Amino acid sequence: MTHENARKNIAIRADSISASLGNGIAKQQVLHGVSLDIAAGQWTSIVGPNGAGKSTLLRCLAGVLPHSGTVHLLGKPMQSLPQRERARQLAWLGQNETSADDLTVWDVALLGRLPHQAWLAPASPADLAAVEQALRATQSWDWRCRPLGHLSGGERQRVLLARALAVQTQVLLMDEPLANLDPPHQADWLDVVRALVAQGTTVVSVLHEISMALHADQVVVMAQGRITHHGGSNDASTHAALVDVFDHRIAIHAIEGQWVALPKTRPSREDRNGCSA
Fold first, then answer.
1. What percent of the chain has pLDDT over 70?
2. How many CB atoms lie within 10 A of CB 161?
3. Hey, which of 83, 105, 134, 192 would disulfide with 165, CB 3.0 to 4.6 Å?
4. pTM of the shown model
5. Domain ends where: 145, 169, 193?
6. Are residues 62 and 91 both part of a single domain?
7. 60 phi and psi angles, rounded to 5 deg
8. How many domains does the chain have?
9. How far is CA 3 from CA 8, 10, 71, 182, in A?
10. Is 182 exposed, middle or buried (0-12, 13-18, 19+ CB in 10 A)?
């Protein structure tokens, strides 16, 4: 593969990313020189224990958090891209995102079309079609006239996902997109991601649900602000890295054709020394 072809097969390239959170004496470095290539047209999941820096890394990749180092989006330095052009190429669904409760579901999803609209211009037929497609994909169409404030947490999350889908970008980043979703709607989300990847979209997600993350093409494992492993979800080395980063408190098994991560309890005192507590 030539250098040019290799470049085209990378949707996001991060080089030596370092980032801190907090201010003053509370400021703490969270990422330590992270470098990462995200393959184009694939789904990459970022996983790791609490405090590993997963969400911070994703925010850096999305260009919404100051950092040192460089990020290239579709072969171009992200910092050099005009904001509207960047918004047409990369959509972002952050953790615990909100929107005005008095907006209707339709209006919230329509916000995803702003990068494609001129200032104060009415929605075009393409905008309306994109919003309808996104609402139907997330099974939110039937609530399109309801205010966002009248929805449950899981329903709101599906509407916010619809807003991100309506942008119709080449790259979609999602931080904890399964929050508040019950298992059937987690499965629906998985179908949406697979459909996006099938049409060539690059998807990057931060997930706490390891079994769901193992459906991805690639898995990035993080600990203490660094990447400890990056490999295929089916690779034995990836499974070993996951078990290791979670202190051997999980076990990964193949069940009905898919990988499942099961929690392991700590040994009781009797298990450890043969004596009851």
1. 94
2. 27
3. 134
4. 0.91
5. 169
6. no
7. -65, -40
8. 2
9. 9, 11, 18, 44
10. exposed
**Amino acid at position 83, single letter:** Q
User: Is 191 inside a domain boundary?
Assistant: no
Structural domain including 261 reads: 1-21+28-74+171-177+206-268
Q: What's the farthest any 2 CA atoms get from each other in the chain?
A: 75
How many residues does the structure list for the chain?
Answer: 277
Report the interhelical angle of 125-137 vs 153-166 (nearest 10°).
Answer: 140
Strand pairing category for 68-73 and 226-232? unpaired
What CATH number is given to the structural domain containing 238? 3.40.50.300
Give the dihedral of Cα atoms 118, 175, 193, 230; nearest 10 deg.
Answer: 120
Does residue 219 sit in the same domain as residue 253? yes
Beta bridge partners of 91: 172
Q: Are residues 62 and 16 in the same domain?
A: yes
Please classify residue 78 by burial: count the beta carbons closer than 10 Å to its beta carbon, then call 0-12 exposed, 13-18 middle and 19+ buried: buried
- Tell me, yes or no, whether 88 and 151 share the same domain: yes
Q: Which residues contact 142 (CB under 8 A, 6 or more apart)?
A: none
The amino acid at 30: V
Q: pLDDT, tens digit, for every residue of 217-242?
A: 999 999 999 999 999 999 999 999 99
pLDDT tops 90 at residue 6: no
Mean pLDDT for 189-209 is 96
Q: Are 212 and 190 in contact (CB under 8 A)?
A: yes
Mean pLDDT of the chain: 91
Cβ atoms 82, 135 nearer than 8 A: no
Which amino acid is present at 249? R
